[in-house]
Specification:
Blueprint (H helix, E strand, L loop, with lengths): L4 H4 L5 H14 L5 E2 L11 H12 L12 H15 L8 E4 L2 H12 L5 E6 L4 H8 L3 E6 L10 H7 L4 E7 L11 H13 L3 E5 L25 E6 L12 E4 L2 H13 L6 H11 L4 H20 L6 E2 L7 E5 L7 H12 L1 E2 L1 E2 L8 E5 L4 H17 L1
Helix pairs in contact: 3-10, 4-10, 5-6, 5-9, 7-8, 11-13
The structure holds pyridoxal-5'-phosphate.
The site of pyridoxal-5'-phosphate has 13 residues, from helix 5.
């Protein structure tokens, strides 16, 4: 066979597929309500764009050191210290072309063929595929609405075998919007330490937490730092998805090895984006404003859907996604999403892509008017079934 089996077996990203289809319908002039978006609907803030433009004008258009600009690594380290209580230095941070690549690099650094990667389910689409690219085996640890779609120490213990190496945590979670408090994380951490697992902690939605919730980084828990790679980025927090900028941070012995992969794959993240990211980290207003807007939208969507009979929305604790149970319609996730799009022009993501058939993911990264229109169309659709 010509193609490497690890690549041939990969599934295309369902979320990117539906996003592309939605964009195509919009470009054709169709009045689609887009509940499929995986990115903030806001433009990148002006002060960040200006920093990017200034970098281009100053000729800052060449390779940077492969692990990232020293000033940016330092700025990320001080953010992780002051906001996340993780004590580290710039040398513990590697800047990457997006958090997605940071995740891949983190997994590739830790995994050897045959290792098992524990992934709480529902999960973000790319985790199992990335594990497979590393020739490791994804092991799904099921969670459901009864436990708020959260892993517990007990559940984690049940998924551990002699081959378990890495646990991927993502909170607040895409797709469920669930998050963990410190006590819940400490319980998971005890099991992690007892079994000498490594944690890749994807905290990319950390600033989008509602109802006064506070984010606790896994690496900040007692004794967790040496076994944790923290992944984060600028896409969601600063509406910078197209700038492709993320990072990973962790102990010297892991990060030193990881940087070799960057040396031989991407060389470095985009120089202009790195300058823009330094400006982004200097901000203290934008994140709060965005969070308030998303919190109001979450309430609006939830209040619109909750009274409907055949759909049960799970009230997100964070992110801009609302995970919703559609099993009472007797349709599977895919048929529900296809029909909702073709009959009512509302796009959403079928949650079989996240390992949970019978559910859909609705994104409230859109305006109040669109949310209201979408709720009306979903109402019509459900009553037509
Ligand atoms: C859970 C999660 N992790 C990582 C990413 C990747 O973000 P980036 O744009 O920085 O690659 C996404 C993007 O959708 C995500 O939802």
């Amino acid at each position: 066979m010509v193609i490497n089996p690890s690549v041939a077996e990969l599934k295309k990203s369902a979320t990117l597929k539906i996003t592309a289809l939605t964009k195509k319908l919009v470009a054709e002039g169709k009045d689609v309500v887009n509940f499929a978006a995986g990115e903030p609907d806001f433009d990148t803030p002006d002060f960040i764009k200006e920093a990017g433009k200034a970098a281009i004008d100053a000729g800052f258009t060449k390779y940077t050191p492969s692990a990232g600009l020293p000033d940016l690594r330092k700025a990320i380290a001080s953010k992780l210290q002051s906001e996340n209580n993780i004590s580290l230095e710039g040398k513990n941070v590697i800047v990457t072309a997006g958090a997605k690549y940071a995740l891949y690099v983190a997994l590739f650094t830790l995994l050897k063929p045959g290792d098992e990667v524990i992934i709480p389910s529902p999960y973000w689409v790319s985790y199992p595929q990335m594990a497979k690219l590393c020739q490791a085996k994804p092991v799904f640890c099921e969670t459901d609405e009864k436990d708020g779609f959260k892993l517990s120490g007990k559940k984690l213990q049940e998924c551990i075998t002699s081959k378990s190496k890495v646990l991927i945590l993502n909170y607040p979670s895409n797709p469920t919007g669930a998050t963990y408090d410190r006590k819940e994380l400490e319980e998971i951490c005890r099991v992690v330490k007892d079994n000498n697992l490594y944690v890749v902690s994807d905290e990319i939605y950390e600033t989008l937490l509602y109802d006064g919730r506070q984010h606790t980084s896994f690496a900040a828990l007692g004794g967790a730092f040496n076994n944790t790679i923290t992944v984060n980025g600028f896409s969601k927090t600063f509406s910078m998805t197209g700038w492709r900028l993320g990072y990973l941070a962790g102990p010297d012995e892991i990060i030193g090895e990881t940087s070799k992969i960057i040396d031989h794959t991407t060389s470095c993240a985009c120089a202009v984006s790195q300058k823009a990211a330094i400006a982004a980290l200097g901000d203290n207003k934008w994140q709060g404003q965005v969070k308030d807007i998303f919190a109001a939208r979450r309430d609006r969507l939830w209040k619109g859907l909750d009274p409907l009979e055949k759909i049960t929305p799970f009230k997100s604790q964070g992110t801009f996604y609302m995970f919703s149970d559609i099993r009472k319609t007797n349709l599977n996730s895919f048929d529900f999403s296809q029909r909702l799009l073709s009959e009512k022009l509302v796009s959403c993501i079928p949650a079989d892509a996240f390992g949970k058939d019978g559910f859909i993911r609705l994104s409230f990264s859109t305006s109040d008017e669109q949310i209201d229109k979408g709720i009306e169309r979903i109402k019509d659709f459900l009553s037509s079934l």
